Predict the 3D structure of the following.
Amino acid sequence: IAPKLLGAGTRSLINIGINKMKEIAELKEVSWTKVGDDMLLTGYF
């Protein structure tokens, strides 16, 4: 998993209008935290 988000490919995300890899906004100051059996990704644009 890379901290990059595309438009409408994932149900958990709204369509943010990004359709091409060159349009992707990368998350900054990314951190991962284990929460039970899950991993929580935090960052900002």
Observations:
- Strands lie at 28-35, 38-44.
